[in-house]
Amino acid sequence: MARRGTTEKTKEATAPNAPAQQFLRLMSHEMRTPLNGVLGMIGLLERTTLDGAQRAYAENARQSAEHLLGLVNDLLDYARLEAGALEFDPAPVDLEGLVRGVAELLSPRAHDKGLEIVWSVTADAPDIRADEGRLRQVLFNLAGNAVKFTEAGGVRITVERVGGDDARPRLAFLVDDTGPGVPSTARARIFEEFGHADASDAVRHDGAGLGLAVVRKLALAMGGTVAVEDRPDSATGGARFRFEAVFDAVKTARKQHLQARAVAVRSRDPFVLSAARAQIEASGGSVRDDASVILLDHVPAKPGETMPLPQGGRVIVMLKPGERDLIAAYRAAGAHAYLIKPLRRTSLVEQVRAAAGDAPNDTGASKPDEDDRVAPARFAGVRVLLAEDNPVGALLARTLLRREGCVVETAATGEEAVAAVHRARYDLVFMDMRMPGMDGPAAARAIRATGDRTPILALTANAFAEDRRLCLEAGMDDHIVKPLDAEALRAALARWTKRDIRAKVGRV
Predict the structure, then answer these.
(1) Suppose 186 and one of 14, 197, 323, 451 were both cysteines; which one would form an S-S bond, judging by CB atoms 3.0 to 4.6 Å apart?
(2) What pairs with residue 156 in β-bridges?
(3) For 25-70, what is each residue's pLDDT tens digit?
(4) Closest listed residue to residue 188, CA positions, set 179, 180, 197, 200
(5) What digits encode the pLDDT tens for the residues 268-289?
(6) Interhelix angle for 52-82 vs 18-46, to 10°?
(7) What are phi and psi of 119, to 5 degrees?
(8) What share of the chain is helix, strand, coil (3-state, %, to 5)?
């Protein structure tokens, strides 16, 4: 098969490029580590009391640092592809989880610009066997590019089945936007190195023009194609980026708990409307204007105001995370529940069933949980060991962890970390990969040799597949890529301190 051939060719190309591979890993660490400190310290500074001018300076510094990080990532990705160091690690991929994760990762950036970002996976698009990291990179680059160039409206990420057979379906990953579109004369050029639709784009949008070049190389390596066209059925412009490839299917059935339940959707935004409809239909339901359960998109006339609730049904209000303060007001006005955008299909199903008075589904929950994006878990009293030799990195991680309520003890070397685990019990260990003397993997192996099963999470400046594999082979349970941010740490705490949902990351 084409995919197997690509993988074998890549492995053959990797061996003679071992020095280049090592250089890229070293440069990734050495460039991202100080950026981690810069971005982290600016983030902490922005949480302090600043006057208007100081806040503007901090925001400009953060934007510049984020731009530099983006350039570093693009350059390292592209250099790695040019060095023939491309690896594929096929494994079962949860398509909905993949697309939802990309949408939620980009949602703060989109919402800050006043954009909607939505996603859906059609019911006939099965889960697949592929390299999830590479697929995520393709989708993230395409959707991130759409958010960057769109000033009003939104971005929609969709996965559809467009051919193939049950064993090897052909899937299309579509990214639609309401931006300016791409002129036909520039549609090939934007996938080239340092290519832009317009020469001024590099200045106006702070881009080197490597993100789409990386997408093109990854698409070809996966035996697929990538292209851009006008967004279909749009009189207002916009672009559609399309990545297509054939994958091996994984036989897992998505449950359709709505069982022909009708739902009404009220939204002025066509992307929100289409994504909600797609998720309802993928769950076995249908959209009907006279349904008794109504999804209402919050689009107020003035910021901070609630909208009048429609009569004659049980209303579920759709809000952005930044609109969390309106939840109580809507409940007081008679709304049955809320959903946070971008929507999660499982949450939509749970809230619709609860509003309709249906029996709980097979999750066993008596009522839907609060969305973690507006009601984040608190971790008061969770004991954490932080092994980090870089003082700036240690200060940042320690500050973020303490803000979540954790009790943090620090170690500056691998030897100190091993001794600390031997001396006391912890709920979680964060372990830097590169420390003087005994490094992170060696310390993890030493801890595991004693029979200790405390979850160990690697902190690494490298996002390469071999680094992730090295973490897991050393006995670590997961890894977080620097620069650190509060959301990533919070997600890690939620994943690894709740004993009932712990699940070791699958080996690659």
Answers:
(1) 197
(2) 118, 176
(3) 666 667 766 776 787 788 778 878 888 888 888 887 887 787 777 7
(4) 197
(5) 999 999 999 999 999 999 999 9
(6) 170
(7) -150, 160
(8) 45, 20, 35
